[in-house]
User: What shape does this take?
Amino acid sequence: MHNLKCLLLFICLCCSFSASAITANCTGTVPPKNFSLPYNTSLDSLTAPGNPSQYKLLYTWSGFDWGYSSLQVTCNPTLTVDFIYYVVPPAGSVPVKDSASGNWIFPIPGTGFGLSFYNLDQQNGPMGNYQNPWVAYRGSNGAGGRTYVRVALWKLPGAVNPSNVINFDGFQVISAYRPVNGADTWGSVPNNGPNLISNTLTALTTVVSGNITLTTGTCNFDDINVPMGSYDVTLHGGPSRAGPMPWKDASFTLKCPPAMGYGRTGSVNTNNNTVTSRTTSTAYNQNINITVVPRSEIFDNVRGIMKLNSGGAGGYGVQLAWGTVASQSTDLNPAQPVIFNTPIQRATAVLTIGSTTNMVVNMAARYIRTEGNIQPGPADASVEIIANYN
Assistant: This one.
């Protein structure tokens, strides 16, 4: 009999800890809030690095207040929930975790730039997509749920600036509830935006867009025509006619705009979500990236040789090398051949904020034997020079 009493007591204790499932019904339809990031081209001016090897932080908005979900959505009964924040990006934007900063960076499609979103409510942390949401804290969905987010603009590594104008739309910042008790469910609820995580209620959605014009970091130069001269190939290289012609000066002068640097922070007034002040640039532009893009067909990229344009001479090409004519040798392989479509750095000094740069870039060109029968005629080839700040 004594054993039976113990068994009954054990059963009662177990029963007292069981939890019943709750179904919460909610009201409060809130249309998505459309929000354009404030950016003043003259006051917020910055020059993005052209081709960085890692993510570069360009501009930070200190924090936007996009509302409290508990003031918009009412549930009966209230539940103990996790307050979850995540981003639904536009098509083609796949976030990447930057190991240095810990941020999830969402590429802006069609550009070399990206955005990150960082929760500032309760437990701060980086917001990913629905597969990597940030859980800010746990509490009753009857209070709290502030969408308080720091936004940052980044330059993506290995991406050359296609333009100094960045237009984007469709980055949806989601504020959602998820019941702590997995047995609790949602009944009748409003449709307040994407709902991509199982058993969650989307309370608020903010759609972020932007139209940002950066200070251009692209240098200009005047078109040049390099006179290569006329040659009788029977006089060069002996019977095999395989020797290269003399080097010619193909140097050019770059005229670069003011280097404004980057790394600014805009202080946001959360009462109206406007930028009231901004810091100066904390990172300086350094180096000038120069890329030689051939408009004629490449023959040997390792030695910097292009084929001649069709319709003229044949059997020869044009070889380019960095440096003055005087620094070149007669060897078939120059010391610094121009590697086409690959950036090379020049002017490695730090550039003072607001300074302009005019610099002469020394390059040499010559005719060199390639392949096929030798044909007389015009011997032309052309390249495009792309230069920008790093």
